[in-house]
Amino acid sequence: MQSPLLKTTGAVAGSGIDADVPAHYGDPYAEQRALAAAAGLVDRSHRGVLRITGADRLSWLHSLTTQRLDQLPPGEAAEALILSPTGHIEHHLTLSDDGTATWIHVEPGTAAALLTFLESMRFMLRVDPEDVSAGYAVLTLMGPEAGVPLPGDVAAVVRGSFGIDVLVERDRLGAAAAELAGHGLKLAGLLAYDALRIAAHRPRFGVDTDHRTIPHEVGWIGTAVQLDKGCYRGQETVARVHNL
Predict the structure, then answer these.
(1) What are phi and psi of 131, to 5 degrees?
(2) In what helix (H) or strand (E) does residue 23 lie, and over which residues does it extend?
(3) Does the pLDDT of residue 31 top 90, yes or no?
(4) Are 129 and 52 in contact (CB under 8 A)?
(5) CA distances in angstroms from 28 to 11, 12, 119, listed in the order given
(6) Do residues 208 and 215 make contact, with C-beta atoms less than 8 angstroms apart?
(7) Is the pTM higher than 0.90?
């Protein structure tokens, strides 16, 4: 699903899994400065989006992932991993709950596999996971001046430690970006975003990891992995390597 922001004057498309969004808009260094020192808007609309409803959703995700999610307050963001039985990373989730549904966004091309896994783990619980990537897109606001008014029809907001992820209806992506740019946010491509991400030692699943990566190797202990929570798949490896 190619982003309409690729039609912006000066926009240059990314490559590989990022080909559907702009890598930059003509000046990646100025875009990086805007994200670091002022306010910028990054199109990450190629990411997959899942929505989970049902009364058991948070306790269910708590049992499946590396993160403590059973008491996650509405509006608070979290990162979580799903591991293999041997502790290798299979999925990285960025999520927030709005009180009625949990919104998750993941790397491009991984939503279908995550949904398949979640569906296989439903059992008799009151949960209903759905891949809504075709209907919703992610825009990320960054910078010390990025606290601007959000469009009124935003579906969800994930206020994490590395920007504010705003989920908007996909057919409203261009209009939402224009409205945010009208508040002074500079359009910035993924090159600028990735430069700051790498400088902050924040890994990207599938780019900085492979099928053999464990959480300790990329710094996800403490951010996406909580060492004081109950059992989950792959926990034995996490605990053993931590203790060693």
Answers:
(1) -85, 115
(2) strand 22-24
(3) yes
(4) yes
(5) 11, 10, 40
(6) no
(7) yes
